[in-house]
Amino acid sequence: GIFTNSAGGIVTNNVLVSGGTFVNSDTASIGGTATVDSGATFQADGTSTISGNLVNNGTVDMQNGTATGNVLNVTGALSGSGTYKLDADLSSTTRHVDQVSVGSVASGTHLAFNFNLIGNSVVGNEALFFTSGTAFDTNAALSSADVSGLVVLGAVTEQVVATSDGKGFVIRTQANPAISSMANNLSLTQLVLSNIINRPTSPFVRTGTLEERACRSGGFARAVDGRATVDGSSTSSSGGAKQSTTISANYAGAQISYDYGCYDGRYNGWSLVFGGNLGLNNGSTSQSVFKLDSLGNQDLTNKVGAIKTDFKQTYAGVYVTGRKGRVQGDVQLRYDDMKYDFSEAYSAGNETYAL
Questions:
Q1: What values do phi and psi take at 139, rounded to 5?
Q2: In angstroms, rounded to a whole number, what is the distance separating the alpha carbons of residues 228 and 285?
Q3: Which residues partner with 241 through β-bridges?
């Protein structure tokens, strides 16, 4: 059944909820310890107070469809392995969330929270929903299995993180870390192009021998084809979550060059070669997307899809290479035109993880 402690009411003794629902209305209070057994529900509406301890092995329900103003104050300690059901609205900068405030220590097997999200969350919002007077008992630490109701897919995700002092939890919204990984993907792709495909020196320029003419022209052509794997990491500025990125790249390219040089040291002891080149590179990269949990961590055992990037680069440039004794230098000036085409592919049943 349902027992209601009406608004303004005070229960001076301890309360045991062993079955059914106990409703503690707005401004109502309990003077002793409240115990909620497994299978029972303690419903806290508005601002309600428990002057003693709260032992929750069932459900403390604060969800009523609005996140404005529901606060449960526990003057004493909080313990048990029950669940706390809260409303949260992070759809604007005013952000609201139901709150549980504990005056003493919070302990138990685990603290478990279920959220009812109201509206569409905005990136960068953060709201405090749980506080205690002392740092948490280690048994009260959260695992991803203890938090439900948050959005962990799509472009905007929510996560629960502990406060820096270890006395509270906040719910935080951020851009999906996979989005920052896409930017990381661009950087890593450029790294592949710069350091693997486009060698930074002019490797086919060589010093002449005594039998050859002092000055002469020449040309060369080359082709490249291969695979590369590059690792990197990114950090979301909106939430601070870190995401590791591994991209696999397939690439192919061709380059032609023509140059003219004098190898007799006529330039104040330097032998110089002047040249120009044209080139084309294309290829693709693949970046795995993993499922996120409600604490913002990647589950590297649960791949839900991949982001594929097709790239094409055309370039033209000029270079000067010089040698004097054992000293050699190379200067290049090049214009690049890069084009990227992103696409997503997700396994059956995981289409909702699309960014």
A1: -70, -15
A2: 9
A3: none
Domain residue ranges of the chain, discontinuous segments joined by +: 2-175, 177-353
Long-range (24+ apart) CB contacts under 8 A made by 332-341 are 332/200, 332/202, 334/277, 337/313, 338/190, 338/311, 338/312, 338/313, 339/311, 339/312, 339/313, 340/186, 340/189, 340/309, 340/310, 340/311, 341/309, 341/310, 341/311
Largest separation between any pair of C-alpha atoms in the chain: 109
Q: Which residue has the tokens 């897919």?
A: 153
Calpha distance 89→97 (Å, rounded): 6
DSSP state of 64: S
* Element (DSSP H or E) covering residue 308: strand 298-324
Higher pLDDT, 30 or 145: 30
For residues 35 and 56, give the distance between their C-alpha atoms in angstroms, rounded to a whole number: 6
- 74 and 100 in contact (C-beta within 8 Å)? yes
- Name 218's Cβ contacts closer than 8 Å, sequence gap at least 6: 258, 259, 260
Q: Look at the pTM and tell me if it is higher than 0.90.
A: no
Condensed to tens digits (0 to 9), the pLDDT of residues 79-104 reads: 888 899 999 888 877 778 899 999 88
CA distance 225 to 342: 22
Q: Name the DSSP class of 352.
A: G
Mean pLDDT of the residues in the chain? 78
Q: Report how far residue 338's alpha carbon sits from residue 314's, in angstroms, rounded to the nearest whole number.
A: 7
HSE-up of residue 148 (Cα within 13 Å, Cβ side): 7
Question: Is the confidence at residue 197, as pLDDT, over 70?
Answer: no
